[in-house]
């Protein structure tokens, strides 16, 4: 049976207005803990109890988690969807369960969603590298069946186009959204022709693998190879050189997710919203400037 974590207790003088279920993979991303804390803080401000359920980033477990949350009679669901299947989301929409997709936005307009803006953010990273006179800019891509990674790949191509650089498949490798996959993708790109002088990495988890592979090959990041990424890892500012990145607005995402769910409960007939919040550019030394 799927286990649900106990609801977060509110302050003694705070009345409980709603009970929300949060279904997500607790350890899928380096910022998962930060996102949970942001949702809990926002829930507490509105008098909402939060029950957590770990999906393990698995579609099958996600379905079981949602069944358990509904059996627990939560008033609404905040879901960080697993990759690979829309069946769970389709079921929630069909049954009229108040639902907000969080962080991993989907390419649909029938459910409320909130996450980071991807296209212009990655475009800006590419243009930053192009402004440093890089012409061979590689891209470590994420999972192909996830909208956020499709958008980041589009941002990469847009950035090249706006910089007058021709896109070539030889400079793109799939990192499978994992450190190991990204390490293999980095090795492939650096061993190919043309070899990139700079890399854009599509997620925090993959940045770990890219850094590892560069170190293993004896490549000096920021000197031999410029690296920029999407997502601000806890360690990104402490490594040498520190990582230039787009930092996701996790606190704002958690707050807005709770607000959207409350709005959906208050007005079930309102038009679904897709809210993309702008990440923040953090300029450090890994890009070589």
UniProtKB/TrEMBL annotation:
Keyword DNA-binding: yes
Gene3D superfamilies: 3.40.50.2300
Keywords recorded for this protein, A-Z: DNA-binding, Repressor, Transcription, Transcription regulation
Record flagged with keyword DNA-binding: yes
MF (Gene Ontology): DNA-binding transcription factor activity; transcription cis-regulatory region binding
A UniProt-annotated Pfam family: Peripla_BP_3
Domain Transcriptional regulator LacI/GalR-like sensor: 126-287
PANTHER family (alphabetical): HTH-TYPE TRANSCRIPTIONAL REPRESSOR PURR-RELATED, LACI-RELATED TRANSCRIPTIONAL REPRESSOR
Protein known as: LacI family transcriptional regulator
Taxonomic source organism: Amycolatopsis coloradensis
Taxonomic lineage of the native organism: Bacteria, Bacillati, Actinomycetota, Actinomycetes, Pseudonocardiales
